[in-house]
Design goal:
Layout: E1 5-14, E2 21-22, E3 33-34, E4 39-48, H1 61-81, H2 88-100, E5 106-115, E6 118-123, E7 126-142, H3 151-158, E8 167-180, H4 188-203, E9 206-207, H5 208-211, H6 222-234, E10 238-239, E11 242-252, E12 255-259
Parallel strand pairs: 7-9
Antiparallel strand pairs: 1-4, 2-3, 4-5, 5-6, 6-7, 7-8, 8-11, 10-11, 11-12
Helix pairs in contact: 1-2
């Protein structure tokens, strides 16, 4: 039987000059704070290890908080002050390594959330790479029908989704790529361009059954949309700087499909 894991998220505002840091009691919203304007970050640390025989903890959560602020905040601040762009993948690796020896447990993974739509994660089993995840949205309409069934049969299988005039969704898409944990990593700007040109431009504000060639023959279920998105991107995200490793598509806030299954 293996060891349990504990995941802790530390929220913070970080200035480019550490002298502008201020502490505050509202750790849920993020501390340290800045006296003026600062960048907001979240660092998510997943620890694994045997339970402490006295406390029953994998790791004391306030120890994680202290070490993230002590070791992570200066690195983030220095990156903000850097005269040239800093690779997020390389920065996450540096933070992971800086924290790893400071805790009693082992840091299995570390995720830096740069925005609600963009994060970078390192895994202990491959510190030479990081996973960059980026979210997008597209709006599209479709109907779900099997041409071998009559209207009653389609209604029985697909319910109101089989309506001949279709219906719409605001889809949310997450693209995950594996990048080197150094300055050679694909930038989020490059990734955005590829996703826009080779996927969003073809799907956004379209009727999938009528406007997108692949779905004229393929029923645009959430599952088929997800695997099709993967096929549309994999040939364009297959290089040492960025290789596609996974796609998630949300049809609603309660339902998503993922390919391939991790």
């Amino acid at each position: 039987m293996g060891n349990p894991s504990l995941t802790r998220t530390v929220r913070m505002q970080v200035p480019s000059k550490l002298g502008h840091l201020a502490e505050g009691p509202n750790t849920y919203a993020g501390t340290p704070l800045t006296e003026g304007i600062g960048a907001y970050f979240e660092i998510e640390v997943r620890c694994i290890g045997p339970l402490d025989p006295v406390s029953g903890y994998v790791e004391e959560i306030h120890s994680i908080d202290r070490q993230v602020r002590k070791r992570g905040v200066p690195l983030l601040s220095a990156a903000l002050a850097s005269p040239s762009p800093v690779s997020p993948a390389g920065l996450v690796k540096t933070i992971h390594q800086a924290l790893d020896s400071s805790l009693d447990s082992t840091i299995d993974s570390l995720r830096l959330r740069l925005s609600p739509y963009h994060d970078v994660r390192t895994e202990r089993n491959d510190m030479n790479h990081a996973t960059l995840a980026r979210r997008y949205t597209f709006s599209a309409s479709h109907w779900l029908r099997n041409p071998d069934l009559d209207d009653a049969g389609n209604l029985a299988v697909f319910g109101k989704c089989s309506g001949p005039n279709g219906h719409g969704h605001n889809y949310e898409l997450e693209v995950r790529i594996l990048v080197p944990a150094n300055d050679e990593a694909m930038s989020v700007v490059e990734l955005d361009g590829i996703v826009e040109d080779h996927l969003l431009a073809l799907l956004d504000h379209k009727h999938l059954n009528l406007d997108v060639d692949v779905f004229k023959e393929l029923n645009p279920t959430l599952e088929n949309i997800t695997t099709t998105c993967h096929r549309m991107l994999e040939q364009h995200l297959d290089s040492p700087s960025g290789k596609l490793v996974g796609i998630r598509v949300w049809e609603t806030d309660r339902t998503f499909c993922e390919f391939p299954t991790p």
